[in-house]
Amino acid sequence: RKEVEQDPGPFNVPEGATVAFNCTYSNSASQSFFWYRQDCRKEPKLLMSVYSSGNEDGRFTAQLNRASQYISLLIRDSKLSDSATYLCAVNRDSGGYQKVTFGTGTKLQVIP
Amino acid sequence: EAGVTQFPSHSVIEKGQTVTLRCDPISGHDNLYWYRRVMGKEIKFLLHFVKESKQDESGMPNNRFLAERTGGTYSTLKVQPAELEDSGVYFCASSRYQTGAVEQYFGPGTRLTVT
After folding, report:
1. DSSP-H helix ranges across B1-115
2. Chain A residues 55-84 within an 8 A CB cutoff of chain B
3. Model pLDDT, residue A1
4. Interval A60-77: pLDDT, tens
5. Residue A76 confidence (pLDDT)
6. Cβ(A86)–Cβ(A21) under 8 Å?
7. Is residue A105 a contact partner of residue B89, using CB atoms and an 8 Å limit?
8. Which residues of B72-106 are buried (b: 16+ CB within 10 A; e: fewer)?
9. Which chain B residues are closer than 8 Å to A31 by Cβ?
10. d(CA B20, nearest CA chain A) in Å
C-alpha cells in the first residue's frame, strides 16, 4: 500500500460547482499535512497547510481526519483558473527531521 | 524575495552522457531537497540536505546519482552515466525549518530527457 494515496481523476466539473478531493495516508505517525497545486508543466506551489481544526482560505477549505487517516480539500464556486493537479503532502518525523511524501495528485478540470 | 531557481530548465542528452543540474534555494533556507517526477507517477523524494550535510539520501536511485551542496548554498545533482529511465522532471525545493510543519518551496524544475 502506498504511503499517500489520491484518486488521480480527472474530475471534470462545471464552473461554479463545489468539488472535494480526499487524500489518505497510511502512517499514523504523520504529523503535518499540506495541499499543493501544480499547473501543467510547472512546479508544485503550496496551496495551504491542513490544521487539525480544519482551515479555510477563501473558496478553499482543508480538513484533517486523523481517526480515518485522510485529509480533504473542498473548492467552492469553481473557477476555470482552478484547473490544475492538486497534490497532497504528508510529513512525518524521520530521525529528528521531517520527511515529506507526496501523493500522485488529483487532476481537476473546470469546464465552462 | 527570490524563489528557488534551477538550471537548466531543459536538458536533452544521450544515454551514457553526463548531466549536472543546479539548484539555488531561497536565501536563508538551510534545508534543500531534490525530487524527481517521472511521467504519470508521483513526485519521489531523492535526498535532503541540511546546510552542506546530507540528512537523508534514501531516495537516490543508485550510485549514478551524486548530489553535492558545498558551502551549504546551491546544490548540484549529477547523473553519470545517464540511462533512459532517468528521464523526468527534477525538482528542487527548500525550506527554512526541518521540524514542525515544514513548508517547502519548489523550483521550476529541470526537464531531463535521455535519448
Report:
1. none
2. none
3. 76
4. 999 999 999 999 999 999
5. 98
6. yes
7. no
8. eebbebebeebeeebbbbbbbbbbeeeeeebbbbb
9. 101
10. 19
